[in-house]
Amino acid sequence: MMLISLAYRFTYKSLDEYAKLLSKQAVQTSLLSKSWVSSWKEVPTLELRSSKNNGFKKLRDFDKFVRSVLYNRNRSLKLDTLTFVREGVASAKILKEVLNYAFSHGVKHVDASINVTKKEEWPVYWNTSSDALLSLNLTSMSNTRCPFLEPEILELGPFKNLTVLYLKGAIITDSDSFSQFPELNKLTLDELTVSCSESISCIELITPKLKLFEYKGINFPVLKKHDSLAVLETVAIDFQGTRHDLYKRRMFEDLLVFFKAVANAKSLTMFSPIVHLLYVYRDEVKRCFPFRHLEFAKLDFGKPGSKVLFYNSLIVKGYSLKKSPYSKCKVLCPTFISE
């Protein structure tokens, strides 16, 4: 009787806390009482994870569970956030079912993370759009095409109210992949691959409301300069680094082009490989460092093994702020912080 009485105290005020439980555990918990059986169908947040710790010995069992959760959920109640994390090789079918559910049911925040897909691409939607979608996070541990960023799909204006876009491991095949997101405020590109038909891989950011741009990759695609970045405030940039001098020179030249395209930013974060690259070509950087309106610069040496490069930052710090004498700078090191 104690379990039953406690269960009946479970109200909508506690739904948010209840939703934070792993989905598998949440459904199992519903066995405590009849009132909980329907409660899990009404939570505003769903987390679907394929971890073995959640009781899924086989991935097909997880896929079956996901379908059951989505099918049985109370569709008259809004789902605010959907998180889907799947290990192994994800089929196009399960990905399409999950994302189509999210887009067709007005989910505001979608976060999907996979290792790899059989077709090496995220599902494409010809008939689905979502005016409700505000943030989209797509993470892949292997290079995965994003057909929804291609012109024939973008012309349909599928996500016109999207404000936050995070892509990891994405392959884009069109340089103008973001202009159809007029409300885009924050863009993060992690390990992006640009595979355009042009001889030079480039991307355009025709995103008039973009305020924050984060980029991390193995190289720097040519970033075309546009007046549409007028309200850009914050830029963070990182790459894996290289030891080959010839390749390092090319990286430096591409980095300068990248910097010029975002030169009106007020805040700039550079990680240790970027700082080292600027240090190697410091004489040239002194003459052409493009940032003139910086209010804050951060040199981040928090990565393992980057402490050996720390003293390079003292020189880079000086000329990175030369054209912005009133700006502040913070240098982060694994063992201490210097301001």
Can you describe this structure?
This protein has about 350 residues and is α/β, with parallel strands linked by helices. It has two domains: about 1-245, Ribonuclease Inhibitor (Leucine-rich repeat, LRR (right-handed beta-alpha superhelix), Alpha-Beta Horseshoe); about 245-339. The protein contains eleven helices and 15 strands. The strands form two sheets. Strands 1, 2, 3, 4, 5, 6, 7, 9, 11, 12, 13, 14 and 15 form a 13-stranded mixed beta sheet that branches. The protein has a two-stranded parallel sheet with strand order 8-10. Helix 9 (about 270-280) packs across helix 11. It is elongated, with a radius of gyration of 23 Å. InterPro entries: F-box_SCFL_complex_component. This is F-box domain, cyclin-like protein.
Task: Find the CATH superfamily of the largest domain.
Answer: Ribonuclease Inhibitor
Rounded to the nearest angstrom, the radius of gyration is: 23 Å
Mean pLDDT level: 79
Give the helix proportion (percent range). Answer: 25-40%
Q: The CATH topology of the largest domain is what? A: Leucine-rich repeat, LRR (right-handed beta-alpha superhelix)
Uncertain residue ranges: 1-24, 29-33
Order of helices and strands: HHHHEHEHEEHEEEEEEEHEHHEHEE
Largest sheet: 13 strands, mixed
Strand content: 25-35%
Q: Number of domains in the coordinates?
A: 2
- The CATH architecture designation of the largest domain is Alpha-Beta Horseshoe
**What structural category do the secondary elements indicate?**
alpha/beta
CATH class of the largest domain: Alpha Beta
